[in-house]
Amino acid sequence: MKFPYRAETIKNGPVIARMILVLGLFLLLGHAEAFNPADLERLMSTNECPSCNLNGANLSGAGLDNANLSGASLENANLSKASLSGVILSEAYLGGTNLSGAYLAGAILDDADLSAAVLSEAVLSGANLNRAILGGATLNKTNLSAAYLRKTNLRRAFLGEAKLSAADLADADLTGANLKKAYLGGAKLGGARLDDALLSGASWIDGTKCREGSVKTCTR
């Protein structure tokens, strides 16, 4: 068997290193294809773009009330402080999307994937989030009053000081969620999973305050 000479191996070293670097960048950036400019133009001109590719698009502060984005992909997009009341995002993918401070009252997000999305201080009052995936999402001080969250995945979500008054959380999965100082007055929790959920200082469904250190069960 013929082995390559040491000199040949050294000579090809930089080429191999470059190949490894390119492969690494491809794997790092290849998870989400960059947004399609034509799709972005269509959205801004018609207020609808179902199943569009808007990954990484900067829509901060955009006015997209009642826009139809069902099935669209908005991975890592910036929608902070955007106006999205009544927007249709059914079955859309918003993994890692920044929606902090966005206004989504009455939005339709059923079956949407918002894994690790940031929704701090966003308004989602009356929004439909049934069966949505919000695992690991940040919802600190988010307004979810009267929102529909039936069978929603909120595992390990951050809901500190969130407003969940009259929210429908029936059969939702809140395993490991952080609900410290959250307000749940009048919320529906029938069938919801609260294993390892942190409830310190939360206002419970009957209006009583959970004692510091409460986990899974609200200790008065």
Please name the defining characteristics of this protein:
single chain, 3 helices
Ranges where pLDDT stays below 50 over 5 or more residues in a row are 5-11, 17-31
Share of helix among residues? 10-25%
**Proportion of residues in β-strands:** under 5%
Assign an overall shape: elongated
Question: What's the end-to-end separation, in Å?
Answer: 77 Å
**Main sheet record:** none
Counted by DSSP, the helix tally is 3
Radius of gyration: 22 Å
Question: What is the H/E string?
Answer: HHH
Structural class: mainly alpha
Number of strands: 0
Question: Averaged pLDDT, please?
Answer: 90
Summarize the structure.
The protein is an all-alpha fold. It has helices at residues 6-11, 13-29, 37-46. It is elongated and about 55 Å long.
Overview of the structural elements:
With 220 residues, this protein is mostly helical. It contains three helices and no strands. The chain has helices spanning 6-11, 13-29, 37-46. It is elongated and about 55 Å long. Residues 5-11 and 17-31 have low confidence and may be disordered.
Ordered list of secondary-structure elements with their pairings:
Blueprint lengths: L5 H6 L1 H17 L7 H10 L174
